[in-house]
Amino acid sequence: MCRPAIYRSGFKCKKCNKTYSSKNIYLDLTVTAGSKDYNEFRPARTELFRSPLVSFLYERGWRQNFNRSGFPGPDEEFQMAREYFKPAEGGVLVDVSCGSGLFSRKFAKSGAYAKVIALDFSENMLRQCYDFIKNDETILNSNLALVRADVSRLPFSSGSIDCVHAGAALHCWPSPSNAVAEINRILRSGGVFVGTTFLRPSTPALFRSLGRGSQNYNNLTAEEIEDLCTSCGLLNYTSKIQQSFIMFSAQKP
Ligand SMILES: C[S@@+](CC[C@H](N)C(=O)[O-])C[C@H]1O[C@@H](n2cnc3c(N)ncnc32)[C@H](O)[C@@H]1O
């Protein structure tokens, strides 16, 4: 993949004839890329992170707050994820909902993956990601590409990806089931999915129909996450839980 050429030119999909634009910093592979008048708004939990302010603050205090809910912190979360990815090391890793690239940069720097794709729906998160990369000589020449896409429509062919990472993201997705089904589709056989998110405490079955109220985020219970992964076709589900933090992993059969 010749990244500078792709970024300069954009390209046209030979199968569906759609033209995709390049934004210099990242490749825009959303369906609405290039549309002039048509716009689409996502749920607040997606739109929030498109804001320049939230994107700027994300690695400057916002993410650190997650520790209060039991998140071990980026260094430890990265090491935990790497352990799960061991069977698929050396392949292509997609960091979906990468935000400002906190983990994409660590994966790229590790040198353990052939390519790392930092993917997010937020243009401003990707700009922040680019700024961090630009100022870090140790990753400037690593095989890291920035892509804008919706997790519910991942721009990769089926069975082409070895590892998918989704840090602190599932609770922000408009449809976790569409997202996990897409992740399952793009993973190759034996490929590994690792995610973290905020848990909702389990409630007795009787009260479940009352729903999740008007929460801004779509926090799932530990049981729902396992059910989601296995019903989308993933196998070997495992998880580690600490307060509201969960890291889970599953594998493509
Ligand atoms: C809380 S941040 C997580 C960032 C980073 N992965 C981490 O571990 O800190 C959640 C990210 O999910 C992204 N996101 C929300 N909806 C999305 C969607 N539909 N497709 C792709 N990314 C989405 C947001 O833009 C945001 O960057």
UniProtKB/TrEMBL annotation:
Keywords: Chloroplast, Methyltransferase, Plastid, Transferase, Transit peptide. One of its GO terms (molecular function) is S-adenosylmethionine-dependent methyltransferase activity. Transmembrane segments: none annotated. GO terms for biological process: alkaloid metabolic process; methylation. Gene3D superfamilies: Vaccinia Virus protein VP39. Residues 94-194 form the Methyltransferase type domain. It is found in: Plastid, Chloroplast, Plastoglobule. The keyword Plastid applies. GO terms for cellular component: plastoglobule. Pfam families: Methyltransf_11. Homodimer. Belongs to the methyltransferase superfamily. This is OLC1v1038123C1. It comes from Oldenlandia corymbosa var. corymbosa. The lineage of its organism: Eukaryota, Viridiplantae, Streptophyta, Embryophyta, Tracheophyta.
